[in-house]
Predict the structure.
Amino acid sequence: VNSAYSAKVMSFMAVELGDGTELKQSYTGTPSRHSFMSERGIAAGSYLWTAEVRAGRTKAMKLSTEYMVAYSGLKDAPEEYVELYFKKLARFTTYPYFRSHFAVHVASSGLMLAPLPSLTDRVD
């Protein structure tokens, strides 16, 4: 639905020149919003992923992407169940797309970064 990318190449150059600065990667994912139409059995909403790379205290790179997801077959399901279902499942269905989106931006910027890790959380 939406994506924003920024990179400060000079921050990465400082690391390559060996000034003692280390790169630190982090990523987060959160459900942004969702709605449930119980009579039709459809839950739809968005999930927001953000990845950052810091060089010391400087934000060297940031990618934020929002994905829209919809699930059907939930007719007459309790709303609490649908909310939990959405939060857990949307995380795992959108992350592979975000992970590859991150890799494309990093590569197109000419940066040498490790890929984002695979998710290993359980979906109970």
